[in-house]
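A quick aside before the break. I want you to see a complete sequence-to-structure record at least once, exactly as it would be stored in a machine-readable document. Don't worry about memorizing anything.
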Amino acid sequence: MRMQLLAVAGVLAVGGTVLAATAQERPRRGGRPDLAALQSELGLSAEQAAEWKKLQAEGRKQAIRQRADLAIARLELAELMDAPVVDQKAVDAKVKAVSDLQGAALKARTDQRLAMRRLLSPEQQEKMKRLMRESRAPREPRPARAWRGRRGGTPGPGEPLPPPGPRGPWADGEDEEDEFPSPEPER
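That is the input. The structure line, written in tokens, reads:
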């Protein structure tokens, strides 16, 4: 028993060390280098770097506000859909509001990218395009995660995954009522 415990501890220690080492070797997620790296790679002046930092901060703040507004609108839409009697006009208006918020977020991201692009000289823009292409280079595939059933069960070695069934792989096989009941009240 003690040997098994020591073996498990050794495996965990080695695994943790390997994970820590690979995490340090990986570039920043999302393909966006930090400002210091950009400043050296693109040869940004102090004024360009300051303006870049300001645009990034403003963009982040705006994105946070927009994500919050969008999340609230989606919650409100879900509330409308869960009402005993669904008001089609209210649902349509809320769907339009969600769509408008998504469009506004896309426009804001596009406007920010254009503003950042205007900061750069044509040579710096070309370097930036190259950096972005390199950051989008194919990454190593992620390891597959084990399938976990609705109750946390995982098929054993050599066992096939259960068939998805009418409601997908999360269905537990029990016959239940329709998952999406009519929004109209029963009469």
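Two observations worth writing down. Residues 35-124 form a domain with the Four Helix Bundle (Hemerythrin (Met), subunit A) fold (CATH 1.20.120.1490). The longest helix spans residues 46-82. We'll return to this after the break.
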